[in-house]
Design a protein that fits this description.
Layout: E1 4-8, H1 13-24, E2 29-33, H2 36-39, E3 48-49, H3 55-68, E4 73-76, H4 79-92, H5 99-105, H6 108-117, E5 125-129, E6 143-147, E7 157-159, H7 162-176, E8 186-191, E9 196-205, E10 208-216, E11 230-233, H8 239-256, E12 261-270, E13 273-280, E14 293-294, E15 298-299, H9 300-308, E16 322-328, E17 334-340, H10 342-346, E18 351-356, E19 363-364, E20 375-381, H11 384-397, E21 399-403
Parallel strand pairs: 1-2, 1-4, 2-3
Antiparallel strand pairs: 5-8, 6-7, 6-8, 9-10, 9-12, 11-16, 12-13, 14-15, 16-20, 17-19, 17-21, 18-20
Helix pairs in contact: 3-4, 4-5, 6-8
The structure holds adenosine-5'-diphosphate and calcium ion.
């Protein structure tokens, strides 16, 4: 019997999807999570407690566990756990991305350096110590300020002039006070790259990229904050542009040194070229994976687990339909009171499901400080146009009651 290890910072919905997928392929799945000490054995199966700020120690715990209970593959669910996974995999001689590569993916400055050295187009970029705001910023405008090591567009802010730059810098600095580690010491500034944005979901085997899907992001992402909303696949870009996206991702995979496992890349098309925003050594986040299904109804989670076990997944094409997901943005700060019209919105043509992941009574924090969504809408259909329309219509029908959060006294 083969056993898989899943590393995750949360024991929430994404981890639960992987657990279900493991049950479907009848493979025991052990969890390693930093939440274990709080939730004490959340899955009641002896999860391995790890600590994000102690990657070596955490990897050693996994190796020790594996001595008694052999592990045959591992999957890391988010950027915070990829380094622990890589260190453990190296020790256990399991296929995964090397530690150096995942560190580059987790650090937007190191990633830019690698992309530049590999000859990929990069914007003007420089990192500033977060502790000392530059008094007269000598940067090009418009620009984007961002922390080095957060994700989901948290703390990413566009500035068009010096005043906006200073305000953005201070806002990110305040946010970083609650974040640990080396990456929290810096704020990166990049020139703003205009153009259409896409995401590429792939899986790497022995350094070779297989593209699973290219997602268009049809809503403009011009700032000042960069909220993800709609992802639709297949892409409506012409074949030449799609080929260029694949070629750029292949270059980025090689530049960073990614070897084995899922990758998620984000790019912009600008001046006839592909500008890599980032490449992550993990699958697409949240519940978005549900937008991807493969031959015989196999889910993305299942495909990733099988790949981690070393099975060949090359002959499993994506389903022929168009598919999409909308990450429902948080419209304003407050307390979520109620969600109405779920039934009519779910019943709209093309809509396959709506999952409200925010809880009633939950405090909602919009970008740039926040990092979650209200939920997800899924749609499928014959064309990407139809899918996009279905997502928009369902979203318009939903109604969210959000009451102002009372300030703490
Ligand atoms: P995160 O890891 O938090 O997602 P990213 O670097 O991917 O951070 O930035 C989030 C979003 O901000 C991107 O998807 C893109 O829309 C926008 N963005 C980031 N950097 C730039 C840039 N240099 N030019 C234009 N848009 C950018
Ligand atoms: Ca991103």
């Amino acid at each position: 019997m083969k056993r898989l290890l899943l590393l995750s910072t949360t024991t929430g919905y994404q981890a639960a999807e992987f657990r279900k997928a493991a049950e479907r392929i009848r493979t025991p799945l052990v969890l390693a999570s930093d939440r274990c000490h709080v939730l004490e054995d959340p899955w009641r199966d002896g999860a391995i407690p790890i600590r994000l700020e102690k990657p070596e120690e955490s990897a050693a715990k996994i190796v020790e566990f594996a001595r008694e209970n052999p592990i045959h593959g591992l999957v890391a669910l988010g950027d915070p756990v990829t380094l622990i996974a890589a260190l453990a995999a190296r020790e256990l001689q399991l296929p995964f991305h090397p530690p150096d590569a995942v560190e580059v993916c987790r650090n937007k400055y190191l990633a830019r350096e690698r992309f530049r050295m590999a000859g990929l187009p990069v914007p003007w970029y420089r990192r500033f110590p977060a502790a000392a705001p530059p008094p007269a910023p000598d940067v090009p405008f418009p620009c984007v300020l961002k922390p080095l090591g957060l994700s989901a567009s948290r703390g990413v802010i566009r500035a068009d002039n010096a005043a906006e730059f200073r305000a953005a810098f201070d806002r990110i600095r305040a946010l970083l006070r609650r974040v640990l580690g080396e990456a929290a010491q810096w704020i990166q500034v990049e020139s703003f790259i205009p153009g259409r944005e896409v995401a590429l979901e792939g899986i790497v085997t022995a350094g070779r990229l297989r593209v699973l899907a290219i997602f268009d992001k049809p809503d403009p992402l011009d700032g000042p904050f960069f909220e993800e909303t709609i992802y639709v696949t297949p892409s409506r870009l012409d074949p030449a542009a799609q080929q260029a996206l694949v070629a750029a991702t292949e270059k980025a995979v090689a530049a960073v040194g990614l070897r084995h496992g899922p990758v998620h890349a984000e790019m912009r098309l600008h001046k006839g070229d592909v500008w890599m925003l980032e490449i992550a050594a993990r699958p697409i986040g949240g519940l978005c994976a549900r937008a991807l299904r493969f031959a015989d109804g196999i889910t993305l989670e299942e495909l990733i687990l099988r790949h981690a076990l070393g099975e060949a997944i090359e002959d499993l094409p994506r389903e022929p339909t168009a598919s999409g997901v909308m990450m429902i943005p948080i419209p304003r700060a407050g307390i979520l009171e109620r969600v109405d019209n779920l039934e009519p919105a779910s019943g709209a043509p093309g809509v396959e499901g709506i999952e409200i992941t925010a809880k009633r009574g939950e405090k909602l924090v919009p970008l740039p400080e926040g990092s979650s969504y209200l939920g997800f809408i899924f749609a499928r259909g014959d064309t990407p146009e139809f899918v996009e329309q279905a997502l928009r219509q369902a979203h318009q029908q939903l109604s969210f009651s959000i009451s102002p959060a009372l300030p703490l006294i």
